[in-house]
Amino acid sequence: MSLTIRAIANWMEDKLPNKSETVDGLLIGNEYDQVTKIAVAFMPSIEVLKKAAKIGANLLICHESPYYEHQNRDNHASNPVIKEKMELAAELGIAIYRNHDSLHRQSPDMITAGLVQELTWEEKIVEFDAISATVEIPESSLEEIMIHIKENLNIQSVRYIGSLANKVNTISILAGFRGSAANVIPLLQKKTDLVIYGEGPEWETPEYAKDALALGYNKNVIILGHMESEEPGMRLLVHQLQKEFPKVRTEFIASDPFIHYS
């Protein structure tokens, strides 16, 4: 029996509360097309579209919008970059489905859960709320934790605030754009020694951590990057899709690092 894009979309949307208020959905393609192979990625970039075509996928499930903004406003008529990207997707025969809210609104948040899992800390969770997971690990230095993160996420670098020798026991983890003061400071005011997040305003949480450290508080921050913090959750989605739809192969496409430091 053939599997359509709509059947896969229904499975994802069944996990989504408040379906009327979402950015999720099929952005490009025909929902009644049969699926030959599924590609999953964080971002539907030109690079990812070409990789998806190379592996024979005709459905790309991505976390973020192809239109470079959260609300999916399609401005391709007036923007040549967006126009050419959409033309490329059509030429390659790739439908693009965005799965953002369904993953974040599950309990627990699937994107955060994927990050915690890849950091091998799922057995150490002591609290998991709507936006963060808190774990307790054997006392380690900030430097040891950064080495652990880079090895497990296969990333070359992280940004951090704190002394490498600072001792850490309790860690709160927030994936994606959740590094604002409103989210992070309440965690640091508790017994959390370290907050790990994807990204956030640099004049908020980093400045708070800098001043807290200057006053003698052991409050440390590691900033992974948005993509680096959310790709693990998309890899977790791959495993779920393979389990639910075993007759259609699903493959994760990692994005190559593209922000360079000189």
TrEMBL record:
Keywords linked to the UniProt accession: Hydrolase, Metal-binding
CC annotations in GO: cytoplasm
Keyword presence, Protein transport: no
Keyword Acyltransferase attributed: no
Binding residue positions for a divalent metal cation: 63, 226, 230
Molecular-function GO terms, alphabetical: hydrolase activity; metal ion binding
Pfam families: DUF34_NIF3
Family listed: Belongs to the GTP cyclohydrolase I type 2/NIF3 family.
Protein name: GTP cyclohydrolase 1 type 2 homolog
Lineage: Bacteria, Bacillati, Bacillota, Bacilli, Bacillales
